[in-house]
Structures are given as structure tokens and as C-alpha cells.
Design brief:
With about 575 residues, the chain is of the alpha/beta class. It has helices spanning about 5-10, 25-40, 50-65, 80-90, 100-110, 120-130, 145-160, 165-180, 200-210, 235-245, 260-270, 300-315, 325-335, 355-365, 375-380, 385-395, 400-410, 420-435, 440-450, 460-480, 485-495, 510, 535-550, 570-575, and strands at about 15-20, 45-50, 75, 95, 165, 190, 215-220, 250, 255-260, 280-285, 290-295, 320-325, 340-345, 505-510, 515-520, 550-560.
Length: about 575
């Protein structure tokens, strides 16, 4: 059953711009519009999305409505569709992955960059990305922009290796459509999802299909345009599309997700943005919702309260904890480890980071683990590869008891020799474990990691070294909060990480987009955090709006009382303070 606005969007003729607030059923509209258009046996539909998963879901839903659509329906991401276009034009590319691209960019950076200019690799990479997000970039001379040399050298390296990066797929497709060497899709109708995230090259790709006669429907929400750093056009893209096509406009302004108590402050907040399509934001969710704002004395008190609230609910799988940065989530994750099942979304889990992963590996080796559990530590503590291979042979690493044989070996006993030092310490830690002093052993492992293990081959900046050491200390603290033997603690940690449907989700605002949860806790609502001083204010406001509108019935916003970082202005703009 469609509401009036959804029905209008489904049946609109010609080019159409559909603006959709969070939870307003935009995928449902795309599905029904495609079915409506395919009711004409002469029509075909091209569905364009940003992820392979959403493309597959959209196609599945449309084919359920129109089982006989056959080849008249094609869906895919911008990049996947562009690659097929190039192959059809006999243009075959050797695509490089992210690691290979980084390697080539580093080579270009080393080959061309003058160290006296103090331009970082990240700055150079951002410049190259910005140039490759334009169809017809105008390159300044070297004096005005030294990074242009890095871009030119990078492109030269791509040509020399016969390679192309991900951005080249779109650029070559657009330029090929322009000069006639690459045929556009023969689509009667095109449907584009998440249109607010399109960049200039993707917009040009759509424009070339319009030039070939496709009637285009774009669906998106400029209030959820949070990828300006990826060159998403947001509101400006919607205005450009409307001017280009004279498209009809339909606003899906009723959410079926958020309770009124959540939607109203979110609407007040986003109204402070000036560059947006006006919407009258309403809700059809009749559930009684709640919004709470909680101040705390410090970050430890804040994360403790988060854990207590989730535990008290008895339903961790209904919760999401959102933060502006992954570092904030890392701080929470290691605190609740072993208490609650946790899933990190859109970022690396705390326990998968190099230091914590190596710490756990050494702890597993202490619990009669395999010799392979020692390998990461051996390699980073000054023991040669040849000696490690010899150790595997000497202690018969493929047979049970290899670690025990390593610990029982009678060697020089010198604390200066890295192999002997590790053996001595592991025997001491085992004695502590046997006498019930598990926490003392855990902190001993942390001290060894900080003083004797080199996590990275290259020298780390002092501030990064401090961060590495803090993570190692947090490993010991997290395991110390769990009761039981070391083996029981490690097992509990492993089990909690696997309970997907029962797990609390930890994610950044960016990672939460497109998702919804009964209960949402947004932490760190402080100036300088959200909004961040490193991002445009209106984009930060959209980001906070996205976070608020993930909640269906309960929203908690917390901050730490701090004179240097006062409470976020966004809470005041939402009239929550």
C-alpha cells in the first residue's frame, strides 16, 4: 500500500526528482516505479546504485513484482555498469586494487615531491582524488600547485604498467560516450538511488544517458549528503538535475521509522541548514518515543553508562552506539569486551588492530596454544626468519605441546637474547596464571609488548607510539575486567564477537547511514567532536541528523562536561537543551 506521495512518484511521467526523508520508503518507490514502467512491453529499465548489495536487492525486489522482466531490467553500480560498457567497446583494463594504487601513488610522491615543501602523502593523495573526480579538470602549473606533478607522474605510472584505477572506469566511460567510442546503455528509463552522493563524473555519466534519450528518475535526500569529502554533490546536484531536465519534483516527507519525539528535534536541527530542498518532515510511527540528553564528568563515566544501559535492557541486539570517529568507538569497545556481544561496523574492530591482535596471540600461546600463535611476536621482537623456521623444526610445531617444549628448553638464559627473554617471561607469566594472579600476568604481557615488540617496521611518530602503548594497556585492562581463567576469558571474548543478531553495533555516523535500530546512543556530543572543525558545518549538521534518524523509538545523546570542549551546538539547535 503506497501513500499519496509515493503513488505520485511511481506514476510520474518523464524526468523525476524524488526527495526522500529517512525511512520514507524510497526503495519501495523505486521498486514500484520500475514495475509500473516495465508494464510497457517495449520499455526497459536501468537501475543504478552505489553498492553491489543494494543493486542486487533492488533487482530482486523488482523481479518479484515483474517476474518476466528478463533482459529488460539491468541493475548495477556506476562502476560495474561502466566496466561492462567499456568491455562492450573492446576496451579492456587491468584494474588495480587499493593497495596497488597506494603503492603507485607513493612512487609518484617519492619521484616528484620536494621535501622542503612539507606536503604530506595524504595531502597529495587527496589532490589526486579531487582531480580524478572531474571529467575535464583544468590543471594549474607547478608553481601554483606542486601536487599537480604527483598527479601527472601517477597517470604516467598507470600508463607504463597498462593499469587503470577505479576512477578511470567512470572517466573513460563518460569520455567514450561523448566521442562515440563507447555506446551508452539503451535504457528507456533510468532509476538512480542515493542521488545526493553522486559526484561530477557520475552526474556526467547520467547526463550522457539523458542526451541519448533516457528518462531519468533520481531518488535521494540532500539532508543525508554526508560524503562531501568524496565529492558528493548533494543539494547542488539535485538543483543541477532539475535545471538540466526540468524534472517534476515529488517529496517523500513522511517517515515510517522514527517516533515523533525523535523526528521533531531532528527536523528542528536540519532546518538550520540553508542549502537544502525544503521538506515538511512528518512521521507515521505512532510509537511513544523518548529522547534523553545525559552529561558526564569524564569519558570513563560516559562509556560505563553506555554499557550499563545496554546490559539493563537485556536486549543488546536492539542497540547501536554511534560516534564521530573510530577512535571513540575503540575506547568503548575495549571497555565492554567480554560483557556484551559487539559488532564493529564500517571500521576495524579494536581486537583486529595490529597491537591488540598480537597481544591476544601471545595470550593464546600462554594457554597451551599453537607455536604459530607466537610467530607474530617472534617476528617483531628481533628474532630472524631463519631462526623462527629452525624453532618450528626444533620444537615440532605441527605436533601438540610445541609451546610447552619451547618453554622447557634449556638455552642460554640471557634476558638480553630476545628468544631467551620471551621464554623466561612466559614461564613467569605461566606461574602467575597457575597461582591465580591472572591480572598480574596480563599486565606483564602488556609491559613486554610495549618494551620488546616492534609493531611496525618503520619508526613511529611519538604521538602514534603513545597511542600504540595505550591500546596495549587497554588490552590488559579489558581482559582484567572479565572473570575466570585466561583461557575462559579469551573464549568469552571470542564467543561474544560471533553473536551477530544479539550484538550491540558500534559504528560511526557515516557507517550508520541506511540502517535503523530501536535504540540509539550517540556519544561525544561536544564541540570539536561533532561538529568537527575539519569539516564544513552544514555537512556536520547533516551527519548528526543522520545519526539521530537511525533511532526508531529511543535516542540517547551524551557529552562530557568540559570547559575546553562545550556541549555540541547541535543539541541546542534541536531544542534539546
Amino acid at each position: 500500500m503506497l501513500n499519496a506521495a509515493q503513488e505520485q512518484a511511481v506514476r510520474m511521467q518523464g524526468h523525476c526528482l524524488v526527495t526522500a526523508c529517512p525511512g520514507s520508503g524510497k526503495t519501495k518507490v523505486l521498486e514500484h516505479r520500475a514495475a509500473h514502467l516495465l508494464s510497457d512491453p517495449e520499455a526497459n529499465v536501468l537501475g543504478v546504485t552505489f553498492t553491489a548489495e543494494s543493486a542486487a536487492e533492488l533487482e530482486h525486489r523488482i523481479r518479484q513484482q515483474v517476474p518476466r522482466a528478463g533482459s529488460r531490467l539491468v541493475t548495477g553500480t556506476f562502476h560495474a555498469l561502466s566496466r561492462k560498457m567499456l568491455l562492450k567497446a573492446n576496451i579492456r583494463l587491468r584494474l588495480i586494487n587499493d593497495f596497488q594504487q597506494t603503492d603507485l601513488l607513493r612512487r609518484a610522491y617519492r619521484d616528484t615531491m620536494d621535501p622542503s615543501l612539507q606536503i604530506t602523502f595524504d595531502d597529495a593523495r587527496a589532490y589526486v582524488d579531487r582531480i580524478k573526480a572531474q571529467v575535464d579538470p583544468v590543471l594549474p602549473n607547478h608553481d601554483l600547485e606542486p601536487c599537480v606533478d604527483i598527479y601527472l607522474r601517477y597517470q604516467e605510472l598507470l600508463r607504463q604498467t597498462g593499469s587503470a584505477d577505479f576512477a578511470d572506469l567512470m572517466l573513460l566511460a563518460v569520455r567514450g560516450m561523448r566521442d562515440g567510442s563507447v555506446p551508452a546503455y539503451k535504457a528507456t528509463y533510468m532509476l538512480v538511488d542515493e542521488f545526493q552522493d553522486t559526484d561530477a563524473v557520475q552526474f556526467a555519466w547520467i547526463r550522457e544517458h539523458i542526451r541519448q534519450g533516457s528518462a531519468v528518475t533520481v531518488v535521494g535526500d540532500d539532508d543525508q549528503s554526508i560524503y562531501e569529502w568524496r565529492f558528493g554533490m548533494g543539494y547542488q546536484g539535485m538543483e543541477d538535475f532539475r535545471r538540466l531536465t526540468q524534472a517534476s519534483h515529488v517529496s517523500l516527507d513522511t517517515t515510517y521509522r522514527c517516533a515523533r519525539e525523535i523526528m521533531e528535534p531532528a527536523a528542528r536541527l536540519i532546518a538550520f541548514n540553508t542549502e537544502r530542498v525544503h521538506k515538511s518532515l512528518n512521521t507515521a510511527n505512532k510509537t511513544k518515543g523518548s529522547v534523553q540528553v545525559k552529561p558526564f564528568a569524564d569519558k570513563e563515566e560516559e562509556r560505563s553508562a553506555i554499557a550499563q544501559a545496554i546490559v539493563a535492557s537485556g536486549k543488546p541486539g536492539t542497540w547501536a552506539v554511534l560516534a564521530r570517529t573510530n577512535a571513540q568507538l575503540e575506547f568503548v569497545e575495549q571497555f565492554i569486551a567480554g560483557r556484551l556481544p559487539v559488532i564493529r561496523s564500517g571500521g576495524t574492530s579494536f581486537w583486529e588492530l595490529r597491537g591488540p591482535a598480537m597481544y591476544l596471540s601471545l595470550c593464546r600461546a600462554l594457554c597451551n596454544g599453537a607455536m604459530g600463535d607466537l610467530d607474530p611476536v617472534l617476528k617483531r621482537s628481533g628474532i630472524s626468519e631463519s631462526r623462527i623456521e629452525a624453532m618450528h623444526a626444533e620444537y615440532r610445531s605441527r605436533e601438540a605441546g610445541a609451546v610447552q617444549r619451547f618453554l622447557a628448553a634449556k638455552k642460554g638464559g640471557s634476558s638480553k637474547d630476545p628468544e631467551d627473554r620471551l621464554r623466561i617471561l612466559m614461564n613467569q607469566w605461566r606461574a602467575m596464571l597457575a597461582s591465580g594472579e591472572t591480572n598480574l600476568a596480563l599486565h606483564g604481557v602488556a609491559h613486554y609488548m610495549k618494551t620488546s615488540v616492534r609493531l611496525y617496521e618503520r619508526d613511529r611518530r611519538p604521538e602514534d607510539q603513545v597511542k600504540d602503548n595505550l591500546r596495549t594497556d587497554n588490552c590488559a585492562a579489558a581482559l582484567a575486567r572479565i572473570h575466570g581463567s585466561l583461557q575462559q576469558r579469551l573464549l568469552l571474548l571470542q564467543q561474544e564477537s560471533k553473536k551477530d543478531g544479539e550484538a550491540v553495533r558500534l559504528m560511526t555516523f557515516h557507517s550508520s547511514k541506511g540502517l535503523e535500530f530501536p535504540n540509539v546512543w550517540i556519544m561525544g556530543c561536544e564541540e570539536g567532536v561533532i561538529p568537527s572543525s575539519n569539516s564544513p558545518l552544514e555537512e556536520e549538521r547533516r551527519l548528526f541528523y543522520v545519526g539521530m534518524t537511525r533511532a526508531k523509538s529511543s535516542l540517547t545523546l551524551s557529552y562530557v562536561i568540559n570547559e575546553k570542549a562545550p556541549v555540541s551546538r547541535f543539541l541546542k539547535e534541536a531544542d534539546l537543551l
